[in-house]
Design goal:
The protein is mostly beta strands and about 400 residues long. It has 4 domains: about 60 residues, no CATH class; about 100 residues, Immunoglobulin-like (Sandwich); about 120 residues, Gamma-adaptin ear (GAE) domain (Immunoglobulin-like, Sandwich), CATH 2.60.40.1230; about 100 residues, Sandwich (Immunoglobulin-like), CATH 2.60.40.10. The chain has 3 helices and 33 strands. The chain is elongated. The chain starts with a strand and ends in an 8-residue tail after the last strand. The relative contact order is 0.10. Belongs to the TRAPPC13 family.
């Protein structure tokens, strides 16, 4: 005889309290009965949650990333000794068949009313139908070889819904927002949500608020995620120094890394998921990339101010660049337009200090730069490079 049973942790006993007003006919009878009930919590008898543990009454749900545990017992119901008993447990999924048996060695003999016990564990890594196949082969006293199998079918469900968004900064930084939703029917304790970056990036987690002593989680002290609740986690990825100056390399990097998520449910049952490699759309810099290195937050009306731009050759050829500055209705460039910047090698960069002024108040967009490669006679125009707040220093407030 072959017995299969899933091993799960017990749950807290729940009771249904029955109460009434003191002036009603039963008086305090129901209250006294609840206080005498050993399953209730002292001082909180009216709560449904008891202090006793109960064994699971059904299979329950099992989710991707959790550990499936099962107890297998082979019992000799006959009055004869059987020999060479081999118990084999396989887990059949949609893509593979896994051997979960602790030992593949046959037991020499099994006496009447005796049993062979085995406990198997497996971290489920696929969604969908799973079939636990238990096969038992043995030899009778008459030398007859017999064989039988039993099947145990269950579904593995998806515990979390993970969505990601990428934001490419003006520099080579990449910001990743991960939205994680609990789609189970019970609460989760989020033990860890981290980003394992690819070899070209260093990652910084932006999910804490720094205080004088230590960082405090942006989610507060409680790390529980209720059913159907969603959290947003934010990460910043910066190119490692050895790759930061290789604009062409960083431009082509689409693999960012993968999320590692660890949680606990009920009485400490742990689950873990790792996403596949996250990929972003590579930013389209073109052959020449112009980025802003320095700009003041606020400038005065009609007063010159300085900015610093960075020009990077993202192509695989050397360029000979000429800078042209075109005024707009609000932005006026100071200096000579059409000056030579010289040759720029592939993946090389140069810093470009510029001076300009604004003739209009308010939030103004800096535009009007043009680069020309004299080798191929190609022109690259850059509008909406940045925005700056222009104020009038002469305006006085009325008292």
């Amino acid at each position: 005889d072959d017995v299969l049973m899933r091993l799960t942790k017990p749950t807290l006993f729940t009771n249904m309290p029955v109460t009434c007003e003191d002036r009603d006919l039963p008086g305090d009878l129901f209250g006294r009965l609840m206080k005498e009930d050993p399953s209730t919590i002292r001082g909180a008898e009216a709560l449904m949650l008891g202090e006793l543990l109960t064994l699971p009454q059904n299979f329950g749900n099992i989710f991707l990333g959790e550990t499936f545990s099962s107890y297998i017992s082979v019992h000799n119901d006959s009055s004869q000794v059987v020999k060479d008993i081999l118990v084999k447990a396989d887990l059949q999924t949609s893509s593979q068949r896994l051997n979960l048996s602790a030992s593949n060695n046959a037991v020499t003999e099994l006496k009447p009313e005796s049993c062979i016990d085995d406990v198997i564990h497996h971290e489920v890594k696929e969604i969908g139908t799973h079939i636990l196949v238990c096969a038992v082969s043995y030899t009778t006293q008459a030398g007859e070889k017999l064989y039988f199998r039993k099947f145990f079918k269950f579904q593995v469900l998806k515990p979390l819904d993970v969505k990601t968004k990428f934001y490419n900064a003006e520099t080579d930084e990449v910001f990743l927002e991960a939205q994680i939703q609990n789609i189970t029917t019970s609460s989760m304790f989020m033990e860890k949500v981290s980003l394992e970056s690819s070899m070209m990036y260093n990652v910084a987690e932006l999910n804490t608020v720094e205080t004088e002593d230590e960082g405090t989680s942006t989610f507060g002290k409680m790390s529980y995620l209720q059913p159907m609740d969603t959290r947003q986690y934010l990460y910043c990825l910066k190119p490692k120094p050895e790759f930061a100056e290789k604009a062409g390399v960083i431009k082509g990097v689409t693999v960012i890394g993968k999320l590692d998520i660890v949680w606990k449910t009920n009485l400490g049952e742990r689950g873990r998921l790792q996403t596949s490699q996250l990929q972003r759309m590579a930013p389209g810099y073109g052959d020449v990339r112009l980025s802003l290195e320095m700009i003041p937050d606020t400038v005065n009306l009609e007063e010159p101010f300085d900015i610093t731009c960075k020009i990077t050759n993202c192509s695989e050829r050397t360029m000979d660049l000429v800078l042209e500055m075109c005024n707009t209705c609000s932005i006026h460039w100071c200096g000579v337009s059409g000056r030579q910047l010289g040759k720029v090698s592939p993946s090389a960069s140069l810093a470009l200090p510029l001076k300009l002024l604004s003739s209009v108040q308010g939030l103004q967009s800096i535009s009007g730069l043009r680069l020309t490669d004299t080798f191929l006679k190609r022109t690259y125009e850059y509008d909406d490079i940045a925005q700056v707040c222009v104020v009038c220093p002469y305006m006085s407030r009325e008292s």
